[in-house]
Write a structure and sequence with these properties.
With 111 residues, the protein is an all-alpha fold. It contains 3 helices and no strands.
């Protein structure tokens, strides 16, 4: 009859044969271990992708959570200030753009 979609899969399931090749992310992608130099805390796992949140207390010697801390211990002490400044500037720029769009719309409507 030719090609039948899913025929091979159904026959393997019916025969309960083991798959010829097992796929596993555990073998392909190493899982970061917490408490190492590369990933000292749970929160440090996203550091290399830039999606971490810095720990405010680690550089003051006051973080008591150790490897279980949900904040990044790899970020420097200035990162929090820089991110706050960037966020403030982004909000300011967005407000300026909205005002510019609003005034441009008013100008176009007046014509």
């Amino acid at each position: 009859p030719g090609y039948v979609p899913g025929h091979v899969l159904r026959s393997q399931v019916a025969g309960r044969r083991e798959p010829t090749c097992r796929l596993s992310l555990e073998v392909s992608v190493p899982r970061p271990t917490h408490g190492t130099c590369e990933c000292p805390t749970v929160g440090s796992a996203g550091h290399w992708a830039g999606i971490c949140r810095p720990c405010e207390y680690v550089h003051k010697g006051m973080c008591t959570n150790g490897a279980a801390c949900k904040y990044c211990h790899l970020c420097g002490p200035e990162v929090s200030k820089l991110r706050r400044r960037e966020k403030r500037l982004l909000k300011k720029t967005a407000a300026q753009l909205q005002r510019a769009w609003a005034s441009a719309g008013d100008t176009l409507r007046a014509q």
